[in-house]
Amino acid sequence: MGAANDVERIAAPVLRATGLELVDVEVRSGNIVVTVDAEGGVDLDTLASVSKAISSALDREDAGPRGHYELEVTSPGLERRLRRPEHFRKFVGQQISLRTLPGVGIDRRLEGEIVAADDDGVVLRISGSPDDCRRVAYSDIERAHTIFDWKAALARTASPTARSDRRRQAESSTTEGRERAEREMADKA
Questions:
Q1: What CATH superfamily is the domain 2-74?
Q2: What percentage of the chain reaches a pLDDT higher than 90?
Q3: Whether 138 contacts 93, CB under 8 Å
Q4: Domain coordinates of the chain in residue numbers?
Q5: Cα–Cα distances in angstroms (integers) from residue 146 to residues 116, 136, 138, 164, in the given order
Q6: What confidence tens digit (pLDDT) does each residue in 95-147 have?
Q7: Which of 87, 106, 142, 162 could staple 158 via S-S, CB 3.0–4.6 A?
């Protein structure tokens, strides 16, 4: 984990200076992925700018994997990966999906609402029932991520049909208003 720690140590001050939060650093052979976030999200121009700054800082410090590597600076996305205790604490009350390591002794795949998270593990409400909670140690988790509620998001976004109906209704009321005004003007004349 030395390379990831080095990248994190170097990237963190660069990101703080730009007002971004360092979410995660992942170092794989030939690839460094730095995940950043900000209140309201991060745009592509900001990601490009920060990528150049982090790359320069890594070059100055001669950090990262040896040899050629690719640096990717990205935002967490809709379904955010959870790795650290602070990630789990941040999403208390949210739905997540996790996969445990083989042989842990509990279900391999779990989905539920984070009820609590501390330095050692997370408590999930599995079925929505207050009685069906399970504690999972972070050391037993292979992967975890938030679950984006697509149904709720789509319900908040009007369908093209609904937009057309609203547009026709607005046009109709505008036409009716114009006709009413013309009648009133004709009556006054």
A1: K homology (KH) domain (3.30.300.20)
A2: 45
A3: no
A4: 2-74, 85-146, 158-188
A5: 15, 16, 15, 34
A6: 999 999 998 877 889 999 999 999 999 999 987 666 788 999 999 999 999 99
A7: 162
Residue with token string 């809709």:
78
What are the backbone dihedrals phi and psi of residue 23, each rounded to the nearest 5 degrees, phi first? -90, -45
What average pLDDT is seen over the chain? Answer: 84
Between the alpha carbon of residue 137 and those of residues 38, 88, 95, 104, 111, the distances in Å are 28, 12, 17, 10, 15
Q: Give the CATH fold of the 85-146 domain.
A: SH3 type barrels. (2.30.30)
- Distance between CA atoms of residues 125 and 30, nearest Å: 39
| The total number of residues written for the chain in this structure | 189
**Looking at the predicted structure, is the pLDDT value of residue 179 above 90?**
no
* Closest CA relative to residue 143, chosen from 117, 114, 119, 108: 108
- How many C-beta atoms surround the C-beta of residue 187 within 10 A? 7
Give the C-alpha separation, 51 to 15, whole Å: 10
pTM of the model: 0.65
Tens digits of residue pLDDT in 43-97: 999 999 999 999 999 889 877 677 788 999 999 888 888 989 999 999 999 999 9
